[in-house]
TrEMBL record:
<dbReference type="InterPro" id="IPR008984">
    <property type="entry name" value="SMAD_FHA_dom_sf"/>
</dbReference>
<keyword id="KW-0597">Phosphoprotein</keyword>
<feature type="domain" description="FHA">
    <location>
        <begin position="146"/>
        <end position="195"/>
    </location>
</feature>
<dbReference type="Pfam" id="PF12401">
    <property type="entry name" value="FhaA_N"/>
</dbReference>
<protein>
    <recommendedName>
        <fullName>FHA domain-containing protein</fullName>
    </recommendedName>
</protein>
<dbReference type="InterPro" id="IPR022128">
    <property type="entry name" value="FhaA_N"/>
</dbReference>
<dbReference type="InterPro" id="IPR000253">
    <property type="entry name" value="FHA_dom"/>
</dbReference>
<dbReference type="InterPro" id="IPR050923">
    <property type="entry name" value="Cell_Proc_Reg/RNA_Proc"/>
</dbReference>
<dbReference type="InterPro" id="IPR042287">
    <property type="entry name" value="FhaA_N_sf"/>
</dbReference>
<dbReference type="Pfam" id="PF00498">
    <property type="entry name" value="FHA"/>
</dbReference>
Amino acid sequence: MGLLDSFEKGLERAVNSAFAKTFRSGIQPVEIASAVRRELDTKAAVVSRDRIIAPSNFVVHLSGEDAAAMNGLGSALTDELHTLVAEHARAQGYSFAGPLSITLEADDKVATGTVHVDSGSSQGRVTWQAVLEVDGRRHTLTQARTVVGRGSDADLTIADSGSSRKHAEILWDGERAMMRDLGSTNGTKVDGVKVREAPLTSDTVITIGRTDLVFRIVPVAARPRSAGGDDATRTFGVMP
């Protein structure tokens, strides 16, 4: 049985055939469950080899008609959604970034029979930031392409005579990362293997000359807008 099948079977236990007939013309509970599951999987991110952080707050946006119908069930639907999401997270090895919360809200921008899900954490909406750690110092990758080498014109300069002036580049699109060697004299290793290019996951070790650079992806929470109108962010203390 697939994971989506498990969601469907779980909802069948909570929703009898009479309930399904009642809402045949609008949103179906299984569609809500599937949308929450997709949001959970999409926003989950690897922060170490042993930890995947997922958002914990989910707001399900429905049309006014669908929201009234679903909220009319009381806690039956949301209780079942909590159970299914927790079971799916456990099966996938996800850790939540705060207490699990799922709420249904009416939204006049959502058409009847459709669903939109937003997610975040109890500390704020979760985003993901790539960093390189060199000799215990963390360097945030603030652009899509970061050149590493011993030259002063590199984006990240390392004092290593075994590295080339522009040795390698790290590409980061906000979700995925890759290392490419830029034709260096001594080559580049990823987790001890010399390669010209390789995808990067959190905790990957990139070796340039005698210097090890540790690539990590860390979660960042956006705090609510301040009184002055500026948004602030902070990095969670999630380290392996």
